[in-house]
Inverse folding.
């Protein structure tokens, strides 16, 4: 199914919860396909949207490729869901933009198992909380590491466990 | 085994979520009252393929739960990409998946070329696919060698490393480095193909087919190896797709999903090769043996591709390999998710560019990271020796897992 | 072979007659020779240099010719080759492993990452800029990754250091031919 | 007068001296500087979690006991093997009845299943054990649940 049909089906089911469809206007055909994304106006609706995307037979997005976290620089953070259906071989990218002071999104681990570690890494690197995640620990850094490194305003600590960090 | 299930349901947080570690819970098993022991297969361990720590909850010898701890090799790749220009990121991409550096470069370079809509000359495409497939064989050789060593056979490791040296020699002649090359640049290559590489490649095809047959007789059809790996660490096809598995781990469950065929990039559509899939006759689908079997088949398919490349390679084509490299590498504003098939699975780059010389954000979909997240699911209820075999069959590279 | 002629056997030093106790000095030479000829390495790879270390211990370069046998546990190993990037989370474990090694122990820091942080020196917020901030290092092997021959050269340097280690008292200077 | 036994005694003393000598000389010659880390128990570089002194399954203890039992049985065979030739058929019959009784015990233990080791109880997770598939089971027909057209069975 092409992007427009997918969007149209989603709009009928979720209407105002979805934001605009950002089409990428690059000359490269691949980037038009894999660079355009659907914004989600209401991040709290992600769980029902995810259930619908995975369980609707005509959509059947059974594979979550990746959850990326993005610091937009103007204080807001974004969570990007890269979805794919191995049944119909079509892809979809969803982007939810969150305010910086309460960056939290419902967890989709109970829908795609792959999200478990992806969300833990988004929490670890960018500091986005995922409500309902079964094991909300940091995955790469130690639990006592100060701050979330991939934020644009991150300052690396001078000493950590008694070791000098900067060169 | 409902007992393992409801006490340690997959969703249930592990023994010591983030608070202090309390003693393992006592388990009531009928009249025998046994405790569980928490064992650390820690960062320094011969069979964790690098610095990975597995916290294993054991009941006697049976694994009740596995909690992987990562981050011992987190080298802040994504933070570096924010401070480096696009070409400067390539050496860091090499050091991310250091066993298949060429495939990592190929993925990153394809992504940036798609963003800038660059058409790469014919010759460069052929050289890239040739080196990507040679790198796939070298990576599978390491995977098969160490997997043999994990299940107790030391000789295949030495045979594989001996033959890998010839591949490294070819790479070294062309781009000067044994591995970690910085060879594929955005829009071209750093050096043209060394004249001796094509004859060496033809010679390598013969010796590699002989070694492939030798490893098959020595390892794959060896009864002890079959008993040790068949039916171990079984992964269901639906759980594999839902859990984000890709590459040999996904194909060994019977899902015919290969990015080179399903989402073709570069000139892979000119070669005919089959997608290697696990077989239900040799052993149960999705187990450790099938993952090894898929790698052995992929080794053979890569040899076929290289053979076709040697026939189709434009020998009299003298275009400079650096002709399509843009002078000012500044992709237009926008984002892209581009992916390629590396020996471990689907390596994806999500690149956001704000029209600057440096990328705003590069997020990497690391196949080894996703495949490793399925380790707890495929090792519950098996013996601890089988856990080591399951981990070895996943073929992880910690540089890519921790990025 | 260039490497083999470095290895001198412990000939009893004839010029040592009359100086102190012959047996004592020759005992030191005997210990040094036995230690440097069987340096058991703790099989412990961190990152890309570990693959190069594996190539060095595979049949093509074969580090075992010089008596370097990979041992899994620190209790039985004499030398620890830090091959790869030392991250902050790993540094405390390396300190623990180094302390748990049996004396006398030696450290070869292989690769730029463990020498000084390597390519991650500037923005590596989780990378330790050099393993010598945590454990004392005997030999630094430069390179990213260093070639197997460079690692063997580093091993030769360590053997020379062990050979000349115990006689660093003043009168020993003349015997260094 | 050196009796037969004195040779054995001399052998024992020499063995003890040889072993003690090795240990004592190395005790003097080796460097010795213990510290807190070195004396800590080694577990792959990590500090251990929980003790190892746990109540493990009883079957491992039973197997060890049975091993000791048959080990002692072999012990009795040694002196018998030295003297059964002059003693003639009576000794042979005597020893085989002794072994026969133990074999009966062995067969009993084997049949009871006390000898089999901890069998792995593999647990292959299906999709419904791993994620919430309630709504999916309603909408997908049985044929469609085999989710992908690409699956090769």
């Amino acid at each position: 199914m092409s992007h427009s049909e997918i969007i149209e089906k989603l709009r009928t089911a979720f209407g105002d919860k979805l934001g605009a469809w950002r089409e990428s206007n690059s000359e490269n055909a691949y980037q038009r396909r894999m660079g355009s994304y659907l914004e989600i106006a209401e991040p709290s609706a992600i769980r029902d949207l995810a259930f619908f995307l995975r369980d609707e037979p005509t959509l059947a997005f059974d594979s979550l490729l990746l959850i990326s976290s993005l610091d937009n620089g103007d204080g807001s953070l974004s969570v990007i869901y890269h979805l794919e259906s191995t049944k119909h071989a079509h892809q979809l990218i969803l982007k939810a933009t969150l305010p910086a002071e309460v960056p939290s999104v419902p967890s989709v681990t109970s829908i795609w198992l792959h999200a478990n570690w992806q969300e833990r890494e988004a929490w670890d690197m960018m500091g986005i909380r995922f409500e309902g995640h079964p094991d909300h620990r940091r995955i790469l850094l130690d639990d006592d590491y100060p701050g979330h490194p991939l934020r644009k305003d991150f300052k690396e600590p001078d000493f950590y466990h008694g070791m000098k960090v900067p060169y | 085994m409902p007992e393992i299930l409801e006490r340690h349901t997959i969703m249930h947080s592990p023994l010591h979520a983030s608070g202090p570690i309390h003693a393992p819970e006592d388990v009531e098993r009928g009249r025998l009252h046994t405790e569980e022991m928490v064992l650390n297969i820690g960062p320094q361990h011969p069979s964790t393929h690098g610095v990975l720590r597995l916290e294993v909850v054991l009941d006697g010898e049976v694994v009740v739960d596995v909690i992987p701890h990562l981050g011992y090799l987190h080298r802040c790749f994504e933070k570096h990409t924010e401070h480096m220009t696009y070409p400067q990121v390539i050496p860091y991409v090499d050091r991310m998946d250091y066993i298949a550096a060429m495939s990592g470069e190929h993925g990153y370079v394809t992504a940036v070329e798609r963003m800038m809509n660059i058409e790469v000359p014919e010759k460069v495409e052929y050289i890239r696919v040739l080196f990507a497939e040679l790198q796939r064989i070298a990576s599978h050789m390491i995977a098969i060698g160490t997997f043999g060593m994990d299940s107790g056979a030391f000789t295949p490791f030495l045979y594989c490393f001996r033959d890998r040296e010839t591949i490294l020699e070819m790479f070294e002649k062309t781009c000067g480095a044994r591995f970690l090359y910085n060879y594929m640049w955005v829009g071209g290559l750093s050096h043209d193909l060394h004249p001796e590489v094509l004859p060496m490649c033809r010679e390598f095809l013969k010796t590699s087919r002989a070694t492939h047959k030798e490893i098959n007789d020595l390892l794959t059809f060896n009864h002890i190896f079959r008993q040790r790996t068949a039916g171990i660490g079984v992964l269901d096809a639906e759980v594999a797709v839902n859990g984000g598995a890709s590459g040999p781990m996904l194909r060994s469950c019977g899902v015919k999903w290969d990015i080179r065929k399903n989402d073709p990039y570069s000139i892979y559509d000119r070669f005919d090769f089959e997608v290697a899939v696990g077989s239900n006759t040799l052993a149960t689908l999705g187990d450790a043996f099938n993952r090894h079997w898929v790698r052995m088949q992929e080794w053979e398919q890569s040899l076929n591709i290289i053979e076709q490349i040697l026939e189709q390679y434009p020998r009299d084509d003298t275009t400079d390999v650096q002709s399509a490299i843009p002078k000012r590498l500044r992709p237009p504003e926008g984002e892209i998710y581009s992916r390629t098939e590396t020996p471990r699975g689907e390596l994806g780059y999500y690149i956001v560019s704000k029209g600057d010389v440096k990328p705003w954000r590069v997020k990497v979909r690391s196949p080894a990271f996703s495949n490793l997240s399925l380790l707890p699911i495929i090792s519950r209820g098996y013996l601890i020796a089988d856990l080591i075999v399951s981990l070895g069959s996943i073929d992880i590279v910690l540089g890519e897992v921790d990025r | 072979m260039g490497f083999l002629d470095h290895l001198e056997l412990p000939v009893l030093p004839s010029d040592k007659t009359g100086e102190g106790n012959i047996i004592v000095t020759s005992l030191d030479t005997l210990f040094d020779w036995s230690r440097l000829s069987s340096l058991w390495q703790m099989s412990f790879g961190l990152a890309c240099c570990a693959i190069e270390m594996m190539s060095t211990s595979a049949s093509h370069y074969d580090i075992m010719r010089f008596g370097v046998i990979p041992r899994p546990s620190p209790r039985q190993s004499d030398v620890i080759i830090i091959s790869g990037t030392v991250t902050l989370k790993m540094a405390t474990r390396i300190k623990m492993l180094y302390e748990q090694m049996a004396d006398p122990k030696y450290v070869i820091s292989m690769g730029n990452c463990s020498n000084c942080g390597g390519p991650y020196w500037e923005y590596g917020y989780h990378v330790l800029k050099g393993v010598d901030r945590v454990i004392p290092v005997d030999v630094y092997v430069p390179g990213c990754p260093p070639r197997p021959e460079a690692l063997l050269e580093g091993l030769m340097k360590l053997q020379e250091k062990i050979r000349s280690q115990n006689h660093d008292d003043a009168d020993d200077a003349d015997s260094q031919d | 007068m050196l009796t037969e036994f004195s040779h054995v005694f001399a052998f024992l003393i020499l063995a003890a001296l040889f072993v003690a000598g090795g240990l004592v000389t190395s005790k003097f010659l080796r460097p010795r500087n213990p510290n807190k880390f070195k004396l800590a128990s080694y577990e792959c570089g990590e500090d251990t979690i929980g003790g190892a002194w746990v109540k493990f399954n009883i079957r491992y203890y039973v197997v060890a006991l049975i091993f000791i039992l048959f080990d002692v049985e072999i012990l009795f065979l040694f002196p018998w093997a030295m003297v059964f030739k002059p003693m003639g058929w009576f000794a042979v019959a005597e020893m085989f009845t002794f072994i026969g009784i133990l074999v009966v015990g062995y067969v009993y233990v084997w049949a009871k299943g006390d000898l089999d080791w901890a069998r792995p109880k593999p647990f292959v997770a299906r999709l419904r054990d791993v994620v919430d598939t309630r709504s999916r089971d309603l909408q997908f027909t049985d044929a469609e649940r085999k989710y992908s057209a690409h699956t090769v069975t």
Confidence is low (pLDDT under 50) at residues 1-29 of chain B.
